[in-house]
Specification:
It holds the Pfam family BPD_transp_1. This protein is mostly helical. Helices cover 81% and strands 0% of the residues. It is globular and about 75 Å long.
């Protein structure tokens, strides 16, 4: 019987890792940097207070909300189109072979290469940013969904059809539960890729968002604020990934559903 580790033993390694990283950061930017060097502007003792300076100006919260809205808009488009496309490609072998070279070609193009096209089509604003996020995030959803459909055991499909299930019922009762882990994994990967693409996309012709604020701080030679914004972006990305892992975990969904299943069984 394995003993469950205590909270202290679980939290100590991550805390130690963060402390070491901050120490290395401080050594590189404060101790090893030459006096008067530009590197000193990125030191933790200057970057962390700069977060408070940005928050006091009232722009940080607005930029975070704006960036999250653009991210969710792009992920929504990528999720809907990617899931539908992945199911179609995974279900029809001819369609899979026909689209594979095109998808591989498009997947290997940097999403930021589409920036002039996005600005030409959608103009200035959140639409081109959401387009670039969707262009980057759609491929993990497509590929994972298609892989999940192809991995469905055909024996389950035959059993469902032998019991009189139609196409729609077979899809909803057999295929959807089987591909759920693959789809959720694709969504989590899409979230990470979309967040990485969002910041440079906001440096292209918009006047708000975290990416825009980095350019604005650079133009003002406020490099401590540049580092502060980098910290905010990293923390937000970590929080988003943690929330996605918690919300999209198939095991968590199973644990949540188990009590309800037991109650239904007892009632029956």
């Amino acid at each position: 019987m394995t003993t469950r580790p205590s909270r202290t033993s679980r939290l100590l390694p991550p805390a130690a890792g963060i402390a070491v990283a901050v120490l290395v950061w401080w050594l590189l930017t404060t101790v090893l940097a030459r006096p008067g060097s530009l590197v000193a502007a990125f030191a933790p003792q200057r970057a962390v207070p700069a977060i408070g300076t940005l928050a006091a100006r009232g722009v940080l919260a607005d930029d975070v909300v704006t960036s999250l809205f653009r991210l969710l808009a792009g992920l929504l488009v990528a999720g809907v189109l990617g899931t539908v496309t992945g199911v179609a490609v995974g279900s029809v072998d001819v369609l899979d072979r026909a689209t594979r070279p095109v998808f591989q070609f498009l997947r290997m193009i940097s999403p930021l290469s589409w920036a002039p096209v996005a600005i030409g089509l959608f103009g200035i604003g959140y639409r081109p940013v959401a387009f670039l996020v969707a262009a980057a995030a759609i491929w993990p959803v497509v590929l994972n969904t298609a892989a999940g459909v192809r991995a469905v055991d055909h024996g389950f499909l035959l059993v469902a059809r032998s019991l009189g299930a139609g196409r729609l019922e077979t899809f909803t009762s057999v295929v959807v539960p089987a591909i759920r882990p693959h789809v959720l994994t694709g969504f989590r990967l899409a979230l990470g890729i979309g967040w990485v693409v969002l910041v440079p996309a906001e440096m292209l012709g918009v006047t708000s968002g975290l990416g825009y604020e980095i350019l604005n701080a650079r133009d003002q030679l406020a490099y401590d604020q540049v580092m502060a914004l980098i910290l905010v972006i990293g923390v937000l990305g970590y929080v988003l990934d943690t929330l996605a892992r918690w919300a999209l975990s198939p095991r968590r969904r199973t644990r949540v559903a188990a009590p309800a299943v037991r109650r239904e069984a007892m009632a029956a």
